[in-house]
Amino acid sequence: MTINVTNADWNAVAPIIIVAITGLLVLLLDLLSPKNISRYAAILLGAAGMIVAGVVASLAYWSPAYVAFGGAFIQSGFGIVFQLIILIAGIGSLILVRPPVQNERIAGATALMLWGTCGAMLMAGAGNLMVVFLGLELLSLALYCLCGLADRPSSRESALKYLILSSTASGFMLYGMALLFGASGSVAFADLANPALASSALLWVGGGLFLVGIAFKLSLVPFHAWSPDVYEGAPLPVTAFMSVATKAGTLAVFARFMYAALPAGTADRLLLPIWIVAAISMIAGNVGMLAQHDLKRLIAYSGIAQVGYILTALAGGTHLGLRYAIYYLAAYTFMNLGAFAIATTMSGDREEGSHLANYRGYGRRNPVGAALMTFFLLAMAGLPPTAGFLGKILILSSSVGAGYAWLGVVLIIGTAISLYAYAKVVRAMYQRDEHVHAFEGHAPAPLAWASAAICFVVIIVMTFYPYTPSNVLPIVK
Amino acid sequence: MSQMMAVPVSYYVGLSAVIFFIGVAGVLVRRNPLIMLMSIELMFNAANLLFMAFARAWLHNAGHIFAFLVITVAAAEAAIGLAIVVTVFRSAKHVDVDDVALMKG
Amino acid sequence: MIAFWILAVIMLGSAIWCISASKPVYSVVALLLHFAALAAMYLTLNAEFLAVIQLIVYSGAILILFLFVIALLSSGVASFSVGPNRLPRIAIPAIVLIALALGFFTYAMGHAGAVVPAAQAGSPLGPVGTADVFGSVNDFGKALFTSYLLPFEITALLLMVAVIGVILLAGDHAPYVATRKHAAEVRREMREAILREGRQ
């Protein structure tokens, strides 16, 4: 039972350790510098740490999978791809940090964001339920604090709301884990995939409660009510981080659970509720988008639907479906980060530029910004010259191939509804309007512009060179 | 062995399930964030009891380790939760989750 | 068996008291009782180390933290609103839910063929309090620092997040004292401010 921990085990988690230590370094520099650490120093150090971690992680992509710490952490292509997406989300949202997050809190905010990234990365590579739970809680605890960082009541209230609802969901997930432990006598994913458990009542109840927790973290429809409010209240960069990193980490756990940890024959029946919920999310998320007046709420509802698309790709459990899901997740990451970057360039020192009223007449005031925003919104809607379109086509093909064509039909209906909502924003930007709040010119945001430009280029490249990583089948052993 | 397992594991499962649902009911029914946080602690502890019971049934101490980790997480979560409650209270002068629009869709 | 039933009744009663109490302070007391009974129940399950941890961390640290916050908020300017108690309205569905849960779980357990006590860990079972048997500190520690080293290390990061997060959230916007030199400046400014006030 006892295992020996070797250097190879620590190497497997080296990217996570690098990110964690970068967080400590930022705090330490803040402590040692005569005044507070400057915003750029904190952000650049944090981003550099995450880039190094990304390079270290990707070095191991082609080497054979390694099961570290006696099965607690699994270093394989699957985990590495998800870790890279999470790191991109971390970098892309970290560089958006600016007022109203005050300067004296910048080091702490950076550190928390880095450690939250660690949590999501742990989820991506988790090989047993303990690491899933701890990674999830690490991410969630960091996010509770980050949500409450802006100095306004709505931010603190969103933190309270997120804390209570998310902890309740963690409670469900934990109880499900306890039952799974009871079913299999082990906390490792590897021992769940035991055919003898297919008829165990504990596995079914436990798996069901576990999936309730997952559905909450992915904000699928019956458990989605928190996300628009929390997204709206949280500071912009935190919303950007939450909308991508939480979903990427949770999807990694879900994919590993679904592909590798279920006894043969149970997947179809146990996961059916998830597919139904995904279908409802695709419709309800897109319908919910129609009534929104804030970009953050809009993206929250859009995110509900986008997770539905990604789950559509996973339905059926094919290898191809997983590759397409990862492709779409990466595209979604860049679209979201791009849209948030543009919103950041419109923010003033006091007010964040996410209210849709600010976008009226934006096309005339800043043609480049409006064009980029239009591009990102159209990518989310899935119109032709973007990766969003290609991703949806790939998802449709795989869902039909896997026997889940009905999900594909729902996806098309949802997309049709969403077009109207995205078009509403685009139309507002190119509308002539004299009564506009002029938000530009408060503070230049070079980092946000750079981020938007990079996201634009990456989405274009992804569209014309649709590379889907092949070494991604999750393993548990 | 027989004297130790006099209480079947199903009794523990039933007890912890009831406590878990009492916790869930607390979160749903009460609007005071402190009591909601305490209800969440009840849920976590119900899960811990289950871990203990199954650890004993399987003679596998993974359940003990898990419960230990859950206690750590619960402590961290309580600290952060109470800090958030205090900040909300400081600015708003009341802590009733209805007023912070918790259930607004 | 008798111990189980006594503790179960205490735990259920205190749990219901906890969620239905009219004031948070009563809830804390109920929770204290609940946790004490839970710790005793851990002892009946051969988890002596966890029983002690349960008492020290939950009763000793977390509940005291709750008490501090209640005291802090009650002494504030505004009266501490308790919030409406909606138990009566939801009591019946809740009882039905709980009864259903209980029935389902006992049924599920009766039909769960997979749970057969099979000694996996290899630690021998023995009386509580003996070294090296299942659930003892020795057994627990060995597992924690070998097989479950990674989860243990993650908790270090988790506690770090809690510490930094709480400082960021609850720390007021008082002058940020970064270095000793800076601290001296802050002290001098404060002294001058006090002197100025004294003169007025």
What does this structure look like?
The complex is a heterotrimer of chains A (477), B (105) and C (200). By secondary structure, chain A is mainly alpha-helical. Chain A has two domains: 1-259, no CATH class; 266-470, no CATH class. Chain A has helices spanning 7-12, 14-32, 39-59, 77-94, 106-125, 129-147, 153-184, 189-192, 201-217, 226-233, 236-260, 267-289, 295-314, 319-345, 362-365, 367-381, 387-401, 405-429, 446-464, and strands at residues 66-68, 73-75. Chain A has a two-stranded antiparallel ribbon with strand order 1-2. In chain A, helix 13 runs antiparallel to helix 18 (405-429), helix 14 packs antiparallel against helix 16 (367-381) and helix 14 runs antiparallel to helix 17 (387-401). The radius of gyration of chain A is 21 Å and the shape is globular. The model of chain A has no long low-confidence stretch (mean pLDDT 87). With 105 residues, chain B is mostly helical. Chain B has a single domain (4-100), classed as Helix Hairpins, CATH 1.10.287.3510. The longest helix of chain B is centred in the C-terminal third of the chain and has 31 residues, at 62-92. The termini of chain B are far apart. Chain C has a domain at 148-200. Chain C is 71% helix and 0% strand. The radius of gyration of chain C is 25 Å and the shape is extended. At the A-B interface, helix 6 and helix 7 of A face helix 1, helix 2 and helix 3 of B.
Give the structure's gist in a few sentences.
The complex is a heterotrimer of chains A (477), B (105) and C (200). With 105 residues, chain B is mainly α. Helix content of chain B is 74%, strand content 0%.
How are the elements arranged and paired?
The complex is a heterotrimer of chains A (477), B (105) and C (200).
Chain A: H1 7-12, H2 14-32, H3 39-59, E1 66-68, E2 73-75, H4 77-94, H5 106-125, H6 129-147, H7 153-184, H8 189-192, H9 201-217, H10 226-233, H11 236-260, H12 267-289, H13 295-314, H14 319-345, H15 362-365, H16 367-381, H17 387-401, H18 405-429, H19 446-464
Antiparallel strand pairs in A: 1-2
Helix pairs in contact in A: 2-3, 2-5, 3-4, 3-5, 4-5, 4-11, 4-14, 5-6, 5-11, 6-7, 6-11, 7-9, 7-10, 10-13, 11-13, 11-14, 12-13, 12-18, 13-14, 13-17, 13-18, 14-16, 14-17, 14-19, 16-18, 16-19, 17-18, 17-19
Chain B: H1 9-29, H2 33-58, H3 62-92
Helix pairs in contact in B: 1-2, 2-3
Chain C: H1 2-20, H2 24-44, H3 48-74, H4 87-110, H5 137-145, H6 149-170, H7 180-199
